[in-house]
TrEMBL record, chains A, B:
Signal peptide residues on this chain, from the entry's feature table: none
Boundaries of every HTH lacI-type domain copy: 9-63
Pfam families reported in the protein's UniProt record: LacI, Peripla_BP_1
CDD domains from the UniProt entry: HTH_LacI (cd01392), PBP1_GntR (cd01575)
Organism superkingdom: Bacteria
Swiss-Prot/TrEMBL keywords: DNA-binding, Transcription, Transcription regulation
PROSITE patterns linked to this entry: HTH_LACI_2 (PS50932)
GO molecular function, one term: DNA binding
Chain segments annotated as transmembrane: none
Name recorded for this polypeptide: LacI family DNA-binding transcriptional regulator
Entries under InterPro entries matching the protein: HTH_LacI, Lambda_DNA-bd_dom_sf, Peripla_BP/Lac1_sug-bd_dom, Peripla_BP_I
Length: 341, 341
DNA sequence: GTGAAAGCGCTAACAG
DNA sequence: CTGTTAGCGCTTTCAC
């Protein structure tokens, strides 16, 4: 069976064990070129018997091919990026490509490090969240000479391809729906993340539409850390004590929105009659709350899928031009917390 | 500035641009060995100017060192593994090591494929969830000749090291607390995942303690897919309609437990007086619910941290023996849904 | 259908 | 402190 010394097995070991040249062993193991059924079986038997695991490092160096796709995202902990990954995985599973993920914690310097690190493995493509990168990062992406898809956001100019939604527009549309429903005294709650450009753009779009209608946000609050649900609850309480005449609360994400919703229900406040609520993301997780929070789907899975498809298509047919700039359009779901009219 | 042809830059390019030998360039870029300040600066300037990104593939092959740690987990979508990853990341960030994650979807065959794939990159260590693996997987882990830490579970025999909690014991302790509080007519709800061995062990431990006290579960139900919160709500309703005299509901995870809790509150059922509830995991996310669900912390972050520390220590001091079998002991938090006595 | 030779881009091990 | 030489384990290319 398997060896006992510490040296990992090489092709040569399989070659010797099977009496077939290294070259032919290599061909069998990769299913490349014609090999007679007889030798093929001999080789496979020997490889399996020894417990041989090919060395991709050597293979990649020799062939100048690496079936890795670097996926660079800000965070794993907020439920939105895992869904993007799921979409990417689904698509890449039908290809030779393998995703490798790196996390930046929303820090440009860390993004730069992670990108450098990943590029040093010479991946076949890059999927990276956002359109805002340090100059050095952009330079690396441009110089890499591989397909690059920037995801989540389409408010800006990509290095190469992009797939996402317009967060600015998402903010505008939510503002429009809120105004249309008759709400006028609006409070905002979000994360204290100056580097979350997508949240910022939503906020900008939101206030822009309000302003165009002569309205300004009456109160705002930001949080960081802790359980989003609990923060939503606390902040909502604090805000309503401070500004009791608000008639709408817009949250930068569904989790804090849900916290707010639970608080209002506790307080027996009429939602959406007295106060309306809306979040952002379309988190499936929250189905099952006593009321459905109004929200807007960020199209996370689709974004992952399309990004992966673009990479795969580019690599399969480098010549064929591929749809490069994809803007998905999320729709509002009114749920039970935003009057419909 | 950067090049425009498609060939990636090599050390040789930097060498020529700086007039320093490849070897010395290599030393500068890796901070190895003594290099005069003057040449160091020349080299760094040239590298930066060209936009050189080292080729780790070649480096790894030549040095026979790969600073990658394979992390193999069943899922990214249920909030528990991202937390484990966070713990791993925290610790590895202070080292040269880089985690690379693979996802198995709770499928042994997929675990085997992923493991094979990862081992073919010759990582320096493996962190893998669970103690149950296919024979082939175990063989690969044993033959790899690198530190292997099996995490989450300690009810079984690891290939090498393990860090986790005893899920069987967790189940037993929860059963004991429930009985002690005086509940007797108990229902169980969980996921339909025959391959989630940890959930199974918790369930076994749970029923074992009940049986030892002459009690059997009166009703049970399993779900798959969908929003756990919504499922918890639906299943709880269905179960109580079917078995209206239950006085306790034990859930295999906090999310469905929270769904159940919300349902009972809606129905104005007295919790924990008429019916008690408990889940499992200690999900921080749920703080902010109107009541705190009784639960048991799975020590996710600590597990990730300790596993990473074991790998790091082993690689730093291969001789030094390292604490190999770590069993953490979660405590029950009673919250507001399990009578305390 | 199979094999031999060369070399991928880097670093270990020496030599100066 | 700096340079030279020889591979790492595989695949490409070409020959048989």
């Amino acid at each position: 069976m398997s060896q006992d010394n510490k040296r990992p097995l090489t092709l040569r070991d399989v070659s010797e064990a099977s009496g077939v040249s290294e070259m032919t062993v290599s061909r069998v193991l990769r299913n490349r070129g014609d090999v007679s059924q007889a030798t093929r079986e001999k080789v496979l038997a020997a490889a399996k018997d020894l417990g041989y695991v090919p060395n991709k490092i050597a293979g990649a160096l020799a062939s100048n091919r690496v079936n890795l796709v670097a996926v660079i995202i800000p965070s794993l902990s907020n439920m939105v990026f895992p869904e993007v990954l799921t979409g990417i995985n689904q698509v890449l599973e039908d290809t030779e490509l393998q995703p490798v993920v790196g996390v930046t914690d929303y820090l440009p310097e860390k993004e730069e490090r992670v990108l450098y690190e990943m590029l040093s493995w010479r991946p076949s493509g890059v999927i990276i969240a956002g359109l805002e990168h340090s100059e050095a990062s952009r330079a690396m992406l441009e110089a890499a000479g591989i397909p690059v898809v920037e995801i989540m956001d389409t408010d800006g100019k990509p290095v190469d391809a992009m797939v996402g939604i317009s967060h600015r527009r998402a903010g505008r549309e939510m503002a429009a729906a809120i105004l249309k429903a008759g709400y006028r005294r609006i409070g905002f709650m979000g994360t204290k993340m100056p580097l979350d450009h997508r949240a910022r753009k939503r906020f900008e779009g939101f206030t822009e539409t309000l302003a165009r209608n002569g309205i300004e946000i009456e109160d705002r609050a930001f949080y960081s850390g802790g359980s989003a649900l609990a923060k939503g609850r606390e902040m909502t309480q604090a805000m309503l004590e401070r500004s009791p005449d608000l008639d709408f609360l817009y949250y930068s994400n569904d989790m804090i929105g849900a916290g707010g919703l639970l608080y209002l229900l506790d307080q027996k406040i009429d939602v959406p009659g007295q106060i309306g609520l809306a979040g952002f993301n379309g988190v499936e997780l929250l189905q099952g709350l006593p009321r459905q929070l109004a929200t807007m789907d960020a199209c996370r899975k689709e974004i992952g899928q399309m990004a992966a498809r673009i990479i795969a298509a580019r690599l399969a047919e480098p010549a064929q031009p591929v749809e490069n700039h994809v803007t998905l359009t999320p729709k509002i779901s009114f749920g039970d917390t935003l009057k419909r009219r």
